[in-house]
Amino acid sequence: MALREIPVGVLFSKSGSYALIGQEGYWGTRIAIDEINASGLFDFRFLPVDGDPKGAAENYAVEADRMLREAGCRHIIGTQTSSSRKEVLPVLERGRGLLWYTTPYEGFESHDRVVYTGACPNQGVVPLFRHIVPEAGRRAFLLGSNYIWGWETNRIARELLAGCDGEVLGERYVAIGDENIDHLIAEIREKRPDFIFNNLIGESSYAFLRAMKQLAAEDSAYAPDRCPILSCNLTEAELPELGEAAVGLISTSTYFETLDTPENAAFLKRLEGLRGPDTAISSMFVAPYEAVWLLARAIAACRTEDPDIVLAELCRQSHATPLRDIRIDPQTQHAYLQPLVAVVEAPGAENGRSRFRILEKTPGPLAPDPYLVHYDPLDSVAGLPTEKPAADNGNTPKLRLVSS
Q: Which residues does the annotated region (Disordered) include (predicted)?
């Protein structure tokens, strides 16, 4: 008997100024779909419906509408930027579809047509600042691409610094894809911050990191061990593009390829045959991959792809993926995730490419807090305060970083 087919939208920019992370999202989704279809575990198979918005925010709504109305999709995996997510919300409302948003983002949203499996602020920027302020100092220079992600993430950074009597020496933005960053380098050289918080994306970020590498060669005060650069979104997918320019950068994520667990070792071994032994695996690949497995498990449990019923099932209990069990908070529709902080190391002899070395991690997954209602920005970041427990059964892990 033929399996019933369920169309699923795959909405990532495989071209454009942030194509590297878009391609990661696309392949994470497509490989998961192929695995599920070949697994024999389900009485259905997913039919991928691809769309490439080419990095233009306005194209996302057009592609999402096509997926829902013409292709019959009820679920869409993807979008990368917050601007693109915002563009598809009216389409989802009108078509009663469900978006699986898998990218780390700035928070302050909880939409009933979205499942958020990327890190929100208490799982990203807060752990990053709790790591760096005691290590580097309290004088920061903030950068961002000129859209919601940059604005809001830097706003949170300002609040965190204000809570520990820190200082923002500068806050600058450039258009997505703009590589004209000489003025940023000049101002940073003049202001001499303790660290730089880089919320640029794609080609803008790559140009900036290369320029900072050159500045460090001219002035050792800007070497990574003296003026570290922080990121909430730089991943393994971009390290080959950057080479030595990424070495020393400190990033936060809920997945790094170097995560030392039996499940990750088995996952990476399996993917060697699919992507090659020299292809790095990043959170931009893993989060969509896990989202597809969550969707399959939820559909199998409730025996329908109806988005409202799937969402209720998803929030009722945790579901297994090949890497870990994931739980979705019913109040916010965000995932419980474990924050990790890591540094980019120079290429090693083992495989000749840069890798992230994990520095710190929380003891377990943290309850999502997209609006930071359980975090008091007046607490001292440098004092590593613990978070107030979320409104569940009182067993949610507090934000305590431990050495890896």
A: 383-404
Q: What is the CA radius of gyration of the chain?
A: 20
394 has a pLDDT exceeding 50: no
Judge whether 334 lies within some domain. no
Cβ neighbours, 10 Å, residue 53: 27
Q: What is the pTM of this model?
A: 0.91
CA distance 82 to 65: 18
Handedness of CA 213, 104, 76, 293 (dihedral sign): positive
Q: Is residue 333 part of a domain?
A: no
| Pair 98, 245 in one domain | no
Q: What is the pLDDT of residues 197-240, one digit of tens each?
A: 999 999 999 999 999 999 999 999 999 999 999 999 999 999 99
Contact (CB, 8 A) for 254 and 123:
yes
- Sequence-separated (6 or more) residues with CB below 8 Å from residue 331: 110, 391
For residue 116, list its beta bridge partners.
Answer: 101, 334
Q: Using the Cα atoms of residue 258, residue 259, residue 262 and residue 263 in order, give the sign of their dihedral.
A: negative
Last residue of a domain, one of 326, 348, 382: 326
167-174: strand order across its sheet: 167-174, 139-145, 195-199, 229-231, 250-253, 340-345, 355-361, 402-403
Provide the residue range defining the domain that includes 150.
Answer: 122-254+339-403
If asked whether residues 180 and 312 sit together in one domain, one would say no
Tokens of 318: 């945790």
Residue 9 lies in a domain: yes
Residue 371 in tokens? 């609006």
> Residues 126, 115: one domain?
no
Query: Secondary structure of the chain: what % helix, strand, coil (to 5)?
Result: 40, 20, 40
Asked whether residue 218 is assigned to any structural domain, the reply reads yes
What's the CATH code of the domain at 126? 3.40.50.2300
CA–CA distances in Å: residue 31 to residues 7, 17, 39, 49: 15, 23, 12, 14
- Across all residues in the chain, what is the average pLDDT? 91
Question: In whole angstroms, what is the distance from residue 403 CA to residue 341 CA?
Answer: 10
Which token pair is 341?
């902080």
Of residues 351, 283, 343, 315, the one with CA closest to residue 119: 283
380 in Cβ contact with 162 (< 8 Å): no
Domain count, the chain: 2
Confidence of residue 262 (pLDDT cuts 50, 70, 90): very high
